[in-house]
Design a protein that fits this description.
Strands 6-5-4-3-2-1-8-7 form an eight-stranded parallel sheet. It has 271 residues and is an alpha/beta fold. It has nine helices and eight strands. It has a single domain, classed as Dihydropteroate synthase-like (TIM Barrel), CATH 3.20.20. The longest helix is centred in the first third of the chain and has 18 residues. It is globular. The protein is 43% helix and 13% strand.
Length: 271
């Protein structure tokens, strides 16, 4: 039943985050069995999610990698159930080609790769299944990305990365590409703010832009928020400004609240 992603210029798309991990920074172990995960996916779809993104490995700063086998154990049954029972497109949040392929075989139609398709095998998987791909920029790895991120030319370096990865993807026949500059992935607080301010500079490629600020630590550092509920106002503020600056898709945990806020933003900027 799962549908394909369609970018509608009249609406900001919402990707609802479904973490099947015991150690996510914001919701680890909350939806760690198939039925509770499916129930949450359905709830997010009912609240306005246009995409359900399933992830089986935490990429928070300092996180430890897991094997493909463990990742598939966490996510595959959930992907199958969502794809067979809901009409919302399913995205798999993974950098492992084997995990992506098994999920695409079982109903997913989108790959969100935090390594930005740097693995040629991932490009081949995306091409084989005609998948939509999210190319995300990350400096370093989840284990070391926040140690001391530095750039000579933040936006220029991210755009150079995008240009190279888009060329590699298109050469292999992958042409449904979304770009994500990677808020919080090898970025300081000031880097994150600069990216949001300068989002129009990523439009040169003609690809939809995704932004993921939800519950990120830069909001905590700016506001002093200590709980997920206290992070929500900052999340909403950041996604609203991002959409005003050109973001097409936002990746969020709190779908209902963000959807309500984006209804106003879309009325201002997209109609």
């Amino acid at each position: 039943m799962t549908g394909r992603l369609s970018i509608d210029s009249g609406k900001t798309l919402i990707s609802g985050v479904l973490n099947m991990t015991p150690d996510s920074f914001s919701d680890g172990n909350m939806f760690f069995d198939v039925q509770s995960a499916f129930n949450r996916a359905k709830e997010m779809a009912d609240q306005g999610a246009d995409i359900i993104e399933v992830g089986g490995e935490s990429t928070r700063p300092g996180s430890r990698p897991v094997t493909a086998e463990e990742e598939l154990r966490r996510v595959l049954s959930v992907v199958k159930k969502i794809a067979s029972e809901l009409t919302v497109p399913v995205s798999i949040d993974t950098y492992k080609p084997r995990v992506a392929e098994e999920c695409l075989k079982n109903g997913a139609s989108m790959i969100n790769d935090v390594t930005g398709l740097r693995n040629e095998a991932m490009i081949q998987v995306a091409a084989k299944y005609d998948a939509t791909v999210v190319i995300m920029h990350m400096q370093g790895t989840p284990q070391n990305m926040q140690d001391n991120p530095q750039y000579q030319d933040l936006i220029g370096e991210i755009n150079q990365f995008f240009a190279a990865r888009i060329e590699a993807a298109e050469r292999a026949g992958v042409n449904k590409i979304i770009l994500d500059p990677g808020i919080g992935f090898g970025k300081s607080v000031e880097h994150n703010l600069e990216i949001i301010r300068r989002l129009p500079e990523f439009r040169e490629f003609g690809c939809p832009l995704m932004i993921g600020t939800s519950r990120k630590s830069f909001i905590r550092r700016i506001t002093g928020a200590k709980t997920n509920a206290e992070l929500l106002p900052g999340t909403i503020a950041s996604i609203c400004i991002a959409v005003g600056n050109g973001a097409d898709i936002v990746r969020v945990h709190d779908v209902k609240e963000c959807s309500l806020a984006l209804g106003v933003v879309d009325a201002l900027f997209r109609r």
